[in-house]
Amino acid sequence: MLGSVAIMVSTMVLAPAGALLVLIVRKAESGVGILTVILGLTVATTMVLTFYTGFSLALATFRAGRGPALIQYASDSAFLQFIGGIPMFWLLWIVVACASLVTRSRENPVIPRWFGYVSLWAAILYIPELLVFFLKQGPFAWDGLVGFWIPAVIFIVYFPLATAVSLGIIRRHFEDTR
After folding, report:
1. Could you report how far apart the first and last alpha carbons of the chain are, in Å?
2. For residue 93, what are the CA distances in angstroms to 13, 43, 76, 136, 155?
3. pLDDT tens digits for 110-167?
4. Is-contact 99 25, C-beta < 8 A?
5. Which residue ranges traverse the bilayer (predicted)?
């Protein structure tokens, strides 16, 4: 139950991180453009999805005396939201890739082009994860190599990398606005 509540509370961390990402994309677009709006909506839906993943896990553990079928239903709901709910993350990576690769090039780009390629590859490598809804066993299942482990490694590598890139962007492009 404590882990479920921690997941729900962690949603608060997504708000400032998402707002920062929206500001970065807005700067890359030189104003509020379609990518900025799409990213803002994507961050909002990601926050909701993250909250309800923890909520579903809490629901599964709230009354342990319930029938096993109900507990399994709530647990499956949580895990499939957590593992299979990647279209929002996918869109986030696509928007970041577009903001770094498609927006007009400058001598001092806001988002490094290499990070756009990393974001694009993260999006591409996450696509097979959607098969978790169709397969219960094997490498594409929710606990398989393609369904869980490859996306988990991408997540573990991408988000600390995104944090480091964001800090560099803040130093280069936002410190002069104080």
Report:
1. 42
2. 18, 11, 26, 27, 11
3. 999 999 999 999 999 988 888 888 988 999 988 899 988 998 899 899 989 999 999 9
4. yes
5. 6-25, 32-59, 79-102, 114-135, 147-170
| 101: exposed, middle or buried (Cβ count in 10 Å: 0-12, 13-18, 19+) | middle
CA nearest to 75, candidates 25, 172, 142: 142
pLDDT in tens, 34-79: 999 999 999 998 888 888 888 988 988 888 788 889 888 888 888 8
Contact 42, 88 (CB under 8 A): yes
Does the predicted model carry a pTM greater than 0.85? no
Torsion of Cα atoms, 39 then 45 then 50 then 56, to 10°: -170
The rounded Cα 22 to chain-centroid distance in angstroms is 14
CA–CA separation, 81 and 102 (whole Å)? 31
